[in-house]
Design goal:
With 384 residues, the protein is α/β, with parallel strands linked by helices. It folds into two domains: 183 residues, Glycogen Phosphorylase B (Rossmann fold, 3-Layer(aba) Sandwich); 182 residues, Glycogen Phosphorylase B (Rossmann fold), CATH 3.40.50. Helix content is 48%, strand content 17%. The protein has a seven-stranded parallel β-sheet with strand order 3-2-1-4-5-6-7, sandwiched between helices. β5, α7 and β6 form a beta-alpha-beta unit. The longest helix has 25 residues. The two termini are 18 Å apart.
Length: 384
């Protein structure tokens, strides 16, 4: 049987994790589909033919992206040529906004149906991207509660809200009553809180935040402290500080770490929503380069929360300390506020218990929906 080719692009590790929330269902129910494009080891193991590995694609911040612009243009041309040569009529583009929006425009000209999974945060900046999406995509998938209406109001004709990929990833653990979410009260915690450090998955995040986290925790000598280590971070950035952590987990053990923790210190990012799903009160910090900060404040017309957990809740559930406010002093104050006031600690826990309901979408079987779109294009091609 001649297989139908479908392009899939996941240019970052988070994109691959998003892909794994629907990819098994898509391939299980559509054996006649052949996927090719950009991804990582997990996608390759699932049967995706990689034109580029995501480790060659991934970059962060404006300064990093600028250096990789020539590579991105060459990759863009290569991908479009492959789409033409394989007579590909459907593409699944996952997050990775700047590259994928440019690619979506090229694919539209080639008559390709674009399924755009994880809407860009156009409501934070570059609102014009909604217009681009309206002109280029077949279906836009949103994962934050308010996004569907926002994009529909701005001309994107078909928008599907879907459960957040993190919910797919952790659902079985979160619903497992034998493990369960920690219900320890402040009285149970006493003066020996279990504090988990999540200093990030990028070198600059760990370099900037881990020394601050370690100093802050030294103010709580009886605390039991743990850390989750990212495989993407250089070991030498961790090594001076590991002696301070009695508990250590690898990245793929983060659920065990969060089931253990009473509190967390985390770099802003997807992990903050993971903390919220596991109902762990978290202090969020972020520090980046002065160049990235300048561009952020100059061009970003957004003054809302930066951490995904707070964005989903649409309020400041977790304290956020960015740039010069990400200090040992502020972290210690925030920890002491929670650890000295049962009502404040429990109020945060109660709000976090609502997170699961906020990340449920209307479309549960995403793989089946995508398969129907791909197969419809195949049938139309046969008819022609």
């Amino acid at each position: 049987m001649l297989k139908e080719n479908c392009l899939i692009i996941a240019g970052e590790k988070s994109g691959e994790e998003h892909a794994m929330s629907f990819l098994p269902d898509l391939l299980r129910s559509n054996e006649e589909i052949s996927l090719f494009g950009v991804g990582g080891d997990e996608m390759e193991k699932s049967g995706v033919e990689l034109l580029f590995h995501l480790k060659d694609f991934s970059s962060w911040g404006f300064s990093e992206v600028i250096h990789k612009i020539p590579f991105y243009f060459k990759a863009l041309s290569k991908i479009v040529e492959e789409v033409k040569s394989r007579n590909c009529k459907t593409a699944i583009l996952i997050d990775f906004q700047d590259f994928n929006l440019r690619l979506a425009k090229r694919l539209k000209k080639e008559g390709v149906n674009v399924l755009y999974y994880v809407a860009p945060q156009a409501w934070a900046w570059k609102a014009w991207r909604a217009e681009v999406l309206g002109k280029t995509v077949h279906t836009l998938f949103t994962i934050i509660p308010f996004e569907k209406k926002w994009f529909l109001d701005r001309g994107v004709s078909q928008v599907k809200s879907v459960p957040h990929p993190l919910w797919f990833h952790y659902q079985s653990i979160l619903e497992n009553k034998s493990k369960g979410i920690s219900k320890r009260l402040l009285a149970d915690i006493g003066d020996e809180p279990r504090v988990l450090c999540l200093p990030g998955s990028r070198n600059f995040e760990v370099k900037n935040l881990l020394p601050i986290f370690t100093k802050a925790l030294s103010e709580f000598p009886k605390a039991k402290v743990g850390i989750v280590l990212s495989p993407n971070v250089k070991k030498e950035l961790y090594s001076p500080y590991l002696k301070y952590f009695s508990h250590q987990w690898d990245h793929d053990q983060i659920s065990d770490a969060l089931l253990w923790a009473d509190l967390a210190l985390a770099a802003s990012g997807t992990v903050t929503l993971t903390c919220a799903l596991f109902e762990v009160p978290t202090i969020v910090c972020y520090k980046t380069s002065l160049l990235n900060e300048y561009i952020f404040h100059t061009f970003l017309n957004y003054d809302g929360p930066i951490s995904l957990a707070n964005i989903v809740h649409n309020e400041q559930v977790f304290p956020e300390y960015v740039q010069e406010r990400a200090t040992e002093y502020n972290i210690v104050l925030a920890l002491k506020e929670w650890l000295s006031d049962e009502s404040k600690y429990q109020a945060v826990k109660e709000k976090l218990a609502l997170t699961k309901s906020l990340v449920h979408g209307e479309l549960n079987n995403i793989g089946e929906f995508m398969g129907d779109v791909i197969n419809l294009r195949k049938e139309n091609n046969i008819e022609r």
